[in-house]
Amino acid sequence: MFMNKRILNILYSAGFLFTIHTAFTAYIDSSFLSNFINEKFVGLIFTIGAILAIFFLNKISFILSKLGNFKTMIFLILLEMLSLAGLILFKNPWIIISLFIIHYGFLVLLKFNFDVFIEHFSKNSFTGGIRGAFLTVVNLAWVISPILVGYALNDSEFWKIYLMSSLILAPLLLIIYLNFKNIPDNHYYHPPFWKTLKEVLDNKNIRKIFMASFLLQFFFGWMVIYMPIYLKRHIGFSWGEIGVMFTIMLLPYILFELPLGKLADSRFGEKEFLTVGFLITALSTGIIAFLTSANLLVWIIILFITRIGASFIEITSESYFFKQINDTDVNVISFFRNTQPAAYIIAPVIATIILKFFAYQYLFLILAVIMLWGLRYSMTLRDTK
Fold first, then answer.
1. 21, 123, 193, 199: which is deepest, by most CB within 10 A?
2. Whole-number Å distance between alpha carbons of 165 and 92
């Protein structure tokens, strides 16, 4: 038990570094790409990256059975460092776009590696608390990053941010190498894709939590791609103001996810919190469509409320799902993690079509309606308590 606690604490530290690496670039990626492609079509680059991520996620159980989780993770970190170096050094649009697509795919796969390690050292009776603790730590990285990026980013010198992000991978690589090289791998189950799909569809509660997670990732993808562009180019905020705004916006993930995870383990289950989360997210996101003022405080408040709802959805969907499986079910875990790239395939395509017919702000009204659809899944879920 002591060994598990020690390893989990190390995983939390590694997760923090990985998330700093991810978060440093997440909210500038779309603006960076808009230097090479029209802003209306930036989302399609994320779509292509997501397709690549889904392809590799569907092969990951086979890869893990050959290499193991440790070797796969080390290899991916090294490749990610190379892809970011390319984004810094090259100026050719086609090379930049290609490297970005690869970079996006690596981030999804590395997140999966963390899932396998955490599940390996988790017990179902503590899943909500463990996932809540991990999410709290990694979301602290999301909170810190925007304000640092906002003040480091002068005159759209994006290369500085990608360099900082790349350097953070060095201590992450060292932590993983020193602490996980002797962790034995369990037997990884890798059935055909269609058999996994049938396994998911046949279990109605897993199917519903998949859909809840997909809608959350859809919300994240929509916001990450289109909100920075909207705030910078349409409302008129500076990167410094956006950094402050996003830092405060992300605080609910730190404030709510750990206590909610523990409550889901001990008293309430996940169903009620999931339902409340969808309601808060949908209503607050819809308000954005009618918010044209450049008042910083007003924007901070409304974006903060959207993330209260999202934090409820995130911890409860994670807790519920990982109570249903164990670390050998890598086929089901990879399928679950497909919700992120799948959302990044569908969300930009829908948004690109919307932008052909409606003004930019109506993206957020339509997103609000989509998030209300989550009530269909949360309210009919069989609770764990």
1. 21
2. 21
Of the ranges 35-49, 141-155, 255-269, 278-292, which is most confident?
A: 278-292
Residue in this structure with the two tokens 């199917």, named with its chain if needed:
207
* Of 71-75, 152-156, 236-240, the least confident: 152-156
Percent of the chain whose pLDDT exceeds 90: 32
CA distance 91 to 102: 16
Which pTM value belongs to this model?
0.76
Residue 116 clears pLDDT 70, i.e. is over it: yes
For residue 328 the two structure tokens come to: 């050998």
Task: Report the distance separating Cα 242 and Cα 197, nearest Å.
Answer: 40
Q: What is the mean pLDDT of the chain?
A: 85
Q: Which residues of 43-65 are buried (b: 16+ CB within 10 A; e: fewer)?
A: bbbbbbbbebbbebbbebbebbe
For residue 142, pLDDT over 90 is answered with no
pLDDT category at 367 given cuts 50, 70, 90 is: very high
Q: Residue 2: what pLDDT?
A: 41
Contacts of 285 (CB under 8 A, 6+ apart): 219, 306, 364, 367, 368, 371
Average pLDDT over residues 33-57: 84
> Could you give the CA distance from residue 20 to residue 30 in angstroms, rounded to a whole number?
18
**299: which 2 tokens?**
């924007």
Inter-axis angle of helices 42-57 and 339-355, to 10 degrees?
A: 160
Quote helix, strand, coil % in the chain, to nearest 5: 80, 0, 20
Cα–Cα distance list, 336 to 233, 235, 315 (Å): 35, 36, 14
Specify the 3-state DSSP secondary structure of 166: helix
Q: How far apart are CA 245 and CA 278, in angstroms?
A: 22
The confidence score (pLDDT) of residue 123 equals 67
Cβ–Cβ under 8 Å, residues 116 and 64 = yes
Taking a C-beta distance cutoff of 8 angstroms, is the pair 319, 385 a contact?
no
DSSP string, 39-95: GGGHHHHHHHHHHHHHHHHTTHHHHHHHHHHHHHHHHHHHHHHHHHHHHHH---HHH
Tell me the C-alpha distance between 223 and 200, whole Å.
28
